[in-house]
Amino acid sequence: MTNISFTLQPVTHADFADIARISSDSFATDRHTMMKSHTAGRNPYNHKDASLGALSYYMSIPEKLQLIKAVDRNSGKILGSVIWGFHGFSKENVPNLTGKELDRAGSEQNVLSDTHTGEVATTNNTVESKATETSEGASKADTTRQSLPLDYAEPEKDDPIERLMAITDADMRRWQDTFMARGSKCMFIVGLSVDPAFRGHGVGTALMRWGTAIADTNSVFCWLHSSESAFKFYQKEGFEVVGTLEVDLDEFAPGPPDKDLGDGKWGLYVFRYMKRLPIRKT
User: Fold this and answer.
1) Cα angle: 69, vertex 70, 72; to 5 degrees
2) SS3 for 233?
3) Which residues of the chain have pLDDT under 70?
4) Whether the Cβ atoms of residue 1 and residue 118 lie closer than 8 Å to each other
5) Do 190 and 65 form a contact (C-beta atoms < 8 A)?
6) What pTM, to 2 d.p., does this model score?
7) What span, in angstroms and rounded, lies between the C-alpha atoms of 187 and 193?
8) How far is CA 22 from CA 12, 13, 47, 165, in A?
């Protein structure tokens, strides 16, 4: 495998189209996303458009979210990106990344001073999460396994995709209340995606460790909401599953799979909430 030399840099508005495309490509084989995008649905989900719509908002709150991209040093091509969130940090303590190149340890570098080469052959898909902060909730996440969120209420909608989104949104709010209680301090991943053509070169690892190094320095935990295929990557980076949401996709599917999924069904999909404790430096 040919090593790729790349740098980590702040995302700019000009990058949005490429980042949305990479995120969409990362979800191309994700069963949950494929089912929501089924053309038989009333309003088929478009992951690329959804990503484009969210990026402008994410960029508007740098005191809460930092967007980082991995860029091939030779071609200038974006290889992947991550959105790291900061909860409970003062504005002064959130990294100011404007016009700077970064290293994977989370510190600032002079432009063109940092090089990465592929060292970890792992793959990673985008992880969906939300950046809203909550004011109440538990201070510690207990390991749970459930089919429906505790606060789930059946929406008055006849669109099965909207009903599914109501379930997943309610579950996300519950976990946000758990992880980001009043007075807590943590970091979280809103999304991490690597161009499928450049997986296995350490891109996802570098994007991940940029943030976890900051978390370790500040002695705070990190959390995320993992897609089906990404959780093993996160486990390798020190995250542990603390809760799950299991969804029978066939109960909400507007039609059968367009692609052969073995038995012609969408099947059971498991969302995983994961937490990483800080590593103390000796």
Assistant:
1) 135
2) helix
3) 1-2, 98-157, 262, 282
4) yes
5) yes
6) 0.80
7) 18
8) 15, 15, 10, 23
CB 261 within 8 A of CB 204: no
Residues found in the chain: 282
* Residue 231: alpha-carbon gap to chain centroid: 11
Instruction: At 143, list the tokens.
Output: 């390991």
Whether residue 79 contacts residue 6, with contact meaning beta carbons closer than 8 Å, is answered with yes
CA distance 247 to 235: 22
What's the pLDDT tens digit per position in 168-219? 999 999 999 999 999 999 999 999 999 999 999 999 999 999 999 999 999 9
Q: How far apart are CA 157 and CA 62, in angstroms?
A: 35
| CA atoms of 77 and 201, how far apart (whole Å) | 14
In the chain, the DSSP E strands lie at 6-10, 65-72, 78-87, 101-102, 108-109, 144-146, 186-194, 221-226, 240-248, 268-276
CA distance 202 to 182: 36
